[in-house]
Amino acid sequence: MLARKAILNLKPYKPGKPIEEVKRELGLRDVIKMASNENPLGPSPKALAAIKKHLADINRYPESGCFYLRQALSKRLKVMPNQLIFGNGSDELIILALRAFVGEGDEVVVAAPTFLIYEIASQVQGAKIKKVPTRYFKYDLKAMSQAVTKNTKIVFIANPDNPNSTYVARHELEAFLKDLPESVIVFIDEAYFDFVAEKDYPNGMDYVSRNKVIATRSFSKSYGLAGLRIGYGVSDPDIIKCMDSVREPFNVNLLAQVAACAALKDKKFLAKTKRVIEAGRGFFYSEFKKLGLRYIPSVTNFVLFEVGKNADQVSKRLLKKGVIVRNMKAWGMDTFIRVTVGKEKENRRFIKELKKAIA
Ligand SMILES: Cc1ncc(COP(=O)(O)O)c(C=O)c1O
């Protein structure tokens, strides 16, 4: 066998089905996707205008260090430019952190369930993965702290989490960081940061200068740039330097860079997105209640709800009607479905089809 031992038992990540694929496979014309926590409003209009303006520049390589975006974020987040790193989606920052700090036999601690990339990318490194069950759909940071050993290199905290849609509160995070050995890196993944309005939700950026914390954010969700793939991470300059040394040059494409710079200024779009998500969540809650379906109150742009033993069948029935939702089998949550908040019309269509699918 030519492949490295570490990757032999790897279960590749299965993304939500793309709209075009479903249209093609099922012969459908009108398909809506509520499966990958994307922004239903499209991309930020300011980002779109910037992309159009720079389309003819793509014969050139992009700036490898994302100069303008680095300047803009350094100012906004009040961090030094050398505390920032950019990725081809915030996904890539997970991979860079693991590549830089985790080798064969090292340990990483993750929650179960959580975002699947932590486990898959750790496996690629040959790491030993310690999974700590969530309690009532929330991270159990005390138990995660107990799972840390002298071999632990990284603890992953998605805050808020996907698929749980819950968050770690400030006092919980601070107690956890206080107890942690200095040598352990805490990766705080804030892909859904912009959607959280709760007062006790901690801002990961507050910890990046004091602890070995890497905090990451994404342009995919709140700014609607998932297809361009861009995210950023903030940490101590020494940690960033290590991650940067294992980064491919030009990992963030030219259009993504200009779009992200413009999106940051698009306050109107961000505010509208937040309003739509909040209203959509509220609509789902009231409809789930009417249907007698249990759901997990969410601080994100998606809601996890329990259908029962036939959840897989229900998601397949929805698919046949052109509504793509996320079946939770890959997370071992066989009775659940995860639905991303869509536009009002999409939310109504989803509920209408759900009623038929569970009948
Ligand atoms: C918790 C979490 N982290 C990171 C990501 C990756 O986002 P990006 O598109 O920035 O790679 C996702 C995407 O769904 C996510 O749910």
Question: Could you walk me through the main structural features you see in this protein, from its secondary elements to its overall organization?
Answer:
- The chain is α/β, with parallel strands linked by helices and 359 residues long.
- It has two domains: 13-43 and 268-358, Aspartate Aminotransferase, domain 1; 45-264, Type I PLP-dependent aspartate aminotransferase-like (Major domain) (Aspartate Aminotransferase, domain 2).
- The chain is built from twelve helices and 13 strands.
- It has helices at 19-26, 45-54, 67-77, 90-101, 116-124, 141-146, 170-179, 237-245, 254-264, 267-291, 311-320, 344-358; strands at residues 32-33, 84-87, 107-112, 128-133, 152-158, 185-189, 213-218, 231-234, 295-296, 302-306, 323-324, 326-327, 336-340.
- The strands form three sheets. A seven-stranded mixed β-sheet has the order 2-8-7-6-5-3-4, sandwiched between helices.
- Helix 5 (116-124) links the parallel strand 3 (107-112) and strand 4 (128-133).
- Helix 2 (45-54) runs antiparallel to helix 9, helix 4 runs parallel beside helix 5 (116-124) and helix 4 packs across helix 8 (237-245).
- It is globular, with a radius of gyration of 20 Å.
- The relative contact order is 0.17.
- The mean pLDDT is 96.
- Pyridoxal-5'-phosphate binds next to helix 4.
